[in-house]
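Re: your question about BLUF domain-containing protein

S., sorry for the slow reply, the queue was backed up all week. Below is exactly what I fed in.
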Amino acid sequence: MTSAPLFQLVYTSIYRAGRVSNELSALRSILSASRRNNQAAGVTGFLIFDRDSFLQVLEGPRDALDATMGRITQDDRHRDVSVLAVRPVAQRAFHAWTMGGCRRTAQQDPIFAAYGMAGGIDRSKADFDTVVALARDLSAQASAPA
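Result:
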């Protein structure tokens, strides 16, 4: 049996407050739902949250990524969703994460600064390679998935 080709998809969006009381609760809620959905769909990835912006790398079969993006664009916690690119990949970068994630903290400021995001995420300057590299560096600091 052959497995479906793998792709990485990178998108940005703006956090729309309202469903939960604070940003940390929003991130936890998104990660919880993502882990449930992604495990069944064979999707892995990493979500970055900084004040009002999301950056996310998703990876898996193309049809599963398309279905995942369909859910994201319908999710009222996201607005102005913009897919930066979808590219084929030989292997997963986030194979251990059905969905990892982090909310920017002061300890991570040097990592963000190294990618030109010292003052915050500028979605207009985010590009595919930068987001993937930033997510890899942040995931290396994150706790191992359970």
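The first strand starts at residue 6 and ends at 15. The chain has one domain: 6-140.

Happy to talk it through on Thursday.
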